[in-house]
Amino acid sequence: MASRIPVSIQNSLWFLSSPLHSINSEGLHNLKNRIHFRPNFFSSSSSSSRRALYCTCTSSNLPTGGPYVITTPLYYVNAPPHMGSAYTTIAADAIARFQRLLRKKVIFITGTDEHGEKIATAAAARGSSPNEHCDVISQAYKALWEDLDIAYDKFIRTTNPRHEAIVKEFYLKVLASGDIYRADYEGLYCVNCEEYKDEKELLDNNCCPMHLKPCVARKEDNYFFALSKYQKKLEEILVQNPDFVQPSFRLNEVQGWIKSGLRDFSISRASVDWGIRVPNEDKQTIYVWFDALLGYISALMEEKGQATLQTAVSSGWPASLHLIGKDILRFHAVYWPAMLMSAGLSLPKRVFGHGFLTKDGMKMGKSLGNTLEPNDLVKRFGSDGVRYFFLREVEFGGDGDYSEDRFINIVNAHLANTIGNLLNRTLGLLKKNCQSTLVVDSDIAAEGNAFKDTVEKLVEKARVQYENLSLSLACEAVLEIGNAGNLYIDEHAPWSLFKQGGASSEAAAKDLVIILEVMRIIAVALSPITPSLCLRIYTQLGYSEDQFDAATWDDTKWGGLKGGQIMAQPKPVFARIEIQMEGEDEVELKKKASTKKKERVPQAQSQTLAEA
Ligand code: MSP
């Protein structure tokens, strides 16, 4: 049974000597339910000090303007990244790219969480020092992000000395608010969660339900954060700001935790050496979560200049969106807001807890050892396929299972056929009949054509879904544009019209402009999800990479392509994935591919033949 035994205040001499500290001697548990919010101020060296009260998130004082700051969790470096960790980052990248298309200044933060017991143990197991180990694994994260086209702005490592300075300053602020006290703690600890557990939430043999490994009995003399003091305030915040936690069913979960009573939690470890030292204290290091959460703020600092909370906060805090997995919701939606309130800082605007990628129904994870290798997936299928599959296939917020068959079917059907093949066959026809040159502006080509309205409606649908973080539905809306394009070309059969000549031929040339305009719109609208593929589409349409980079959501409006624009030579933008079975040689594989083409995509492929 977990028990916390307040230690007499005399045990912590620094308490008495600290003028900052306001804790009284009446028993530290009186902190509980004592709602005493002390506004904090950022002092600045100049006389015009910058004042920052914590934001209680009522609609009137929600921060407005400023950059769009989106964060992924800072990943533990106990092992290299797996597909579960890549999933959060891919989703965050898609959201960041969408916000950039809306012309927002975006600060996309990711990084690695490098302190704590399990990191030290992992380093020792590899025969490395913790520092060397962290360098290697954080580099593996960076390399994967590059391969997955992740365009982050800041990569924070919690071993960065500038981050350490921020954590210590933050700790002292919380201390000054009277929210830190010292006590003994005895309980069951899950090293993988880095968390003391309630006995009632454990499985047989005291196993952690997440990691299926037994928790260990621990007794420690720790510093505690007075979370219980913030119970009422947190309840109010969630009532006043129901969008703070999303999806909405996770809000109920958070409200349930708070209602069942918040217990103070220990924010230092006497037994862990690999961590940031508690200020004015030799033997204790700061609890990994009290350290890592601050990475969201310290990441905002420039690389040079003073490492202070004030400089970091003034560079973009509060975050617009913390994107996390559902397993770390409690830390982000309960602990973190309370810590921020204690330090007098604004709360993030939103916390979104997505579901798990599972394998055989179990959460995929480093601790369970049932991971899917993202490097391997990217090598075999490319970044666009990986990004598209997970964002399209898993309803964002819920869980999703990976299967290779499903992966190949979805990616081939959507990216290779609906999008890639439509572009390729249209450019082929344009080359053959119009010297790869557009005959009119796309606006003129679509005059009085209801098809343009259909596309515009689907683009708007995609925008709304992106705004709502419904990434799968956003993909679906863009794919619908591709489907509409395929239907249009099949119904109009420009290859036949060209053969008729005269007015029919003119109509066919206009139809090609219409389809290529559709491709241009798809390239912009799908660029948050599959940036490399969309760049390839854009360049096939005769644009430069700089023009692609400069595109905004306004470019999804009909009318971008102009008469006289010369398209590139048709070249497949997305190769179908063909899996070679054991013992199958190249010739068989080719045969199989051509049979499959006939079987699976009769419409698109047979028309390609007719077009020839
Ligand atoms: N270090 C902490 C986060 C600190 S943030 C200040 C941590 N790290 S983690 O590496 O264990 O997990 C990072 C993220 O990866 C979490 O959001 C977690 O939910 C996510 N995933 C880990 N496995 C996952 C799946 N199998 N599926 C989807 N996401 C999962 O927690």
Entry keywords:
elongated, single chain, binds 5'-O-[(L-methionyl)-sulphamoyl]adenosine, six-stranded parallel sheet, five-stranded antiparallel sheet, 46% helix, 22 helices, 612 residues, alpha/beta, disordered C terminus
Textual characterization of the structure:
By secondary structure, this protein is of the alpha/beta class. Helices cover 46% and strands 12% of the residues. The strands form 4 sheets. Strands 4-3-2-12-13-8 form a 6-stranded parallel sheet, with helices on both faces. Strands 1, 5, 6, 7 and 9 form a 5-stranded antiparallel sheet that branches. β2 (68-76), α2 and β3 form a beta-alpha-beta unit. The radius of gyration is 28 Å and the shape is elongated. The model is unreliable at 1-63 and 591-610 (pLDDT under 50). The site of 5'-O-[(L-methionyl)-sulphamoyl]adenosine has 21 residues, from β2, α2 and β12.
Secondary structure elements and pairings:
Elements: E1 3-6, H1 13-17, E2 68-76, H2 83-101, E3 106-113, H3 117-125, H4 130-147, E4 154-157, H5 161-176, E5 180-190, E6 195-197, E7 216-225, H6 231-240, E8 245-246, H7 248-259, E9 265-266, E10 268-269, E11 285-286, H8 288-292, H9 295-298, H10 309-313, E12 321-325, H11 329-343, E13 351-354, E14 357-359, E15 362-363, H12 374-393, E16 400-401, H13 404-434, H14 442-445, H15 450-467, H16 471-492, H17 494-500, H18 502-525, H19 531-540, H20 545-549, H21 586-600, H22 602-611
Parallel strand pairs: 2-3, 2-12, 3-4, 8-13, 12-13, 14-16
Antiparallel strand pairs: 1-5, 5-6, 5-7, 7-9, 10-11, 14-15
